[in-house]
Design brief:
By secondary structure, the protein is α+β, with helices and mostly antiparallel strands. The chain has one domain. It contains three helices and seven strands. Strands 1, 2, 3, 4, 5, 6 and 7 form a seven-stranded mixed β-sheet that branches. A hairpin with a 5-residue loop joins strand 4 and strand 5. The relative contact order is 0.23.
Length: 140
Amino acid sequence: MPLHLIKLAVGIEHIDHLKERQSRFINDVGNAQHTTRMFPKRSDALLDDGSMFWVIKRMVLVRQPIIALHKGTNQEGRSMCVIELAPHHIYVQPQRKRPFQGWRYLKPDEAPKDIADGDGYIEPDMPDDMRAELSRIGLI
């Protein structure tokens, strides 16, 4: 059974801002890379179709499939984890989330559902707050 991670996108204002920031951290095969201090103990479950869900301005708005987890060390010699993510972003039904530190595991039954083509009209340029309000009132 897959397991997911959830992470605050600190300093990120909207989904396009996340995409722009991640464009600076692309590996040789075109995948986004996110560095964190702790290596997940439940890595096997994360690599079984797990995703990284991003919290932007207290709302879970988007996810990226996890491709791989790599152990490494930073410039100070401390251990770290590089989370390799698919380059595409999948919109999810907006869900409020309180602030927390680091990342957390997210069970599949607690994860927001994807917004698919049949679930309502989603304009790619729609502001995140509008998408959240439309979801709150049940229109998407």
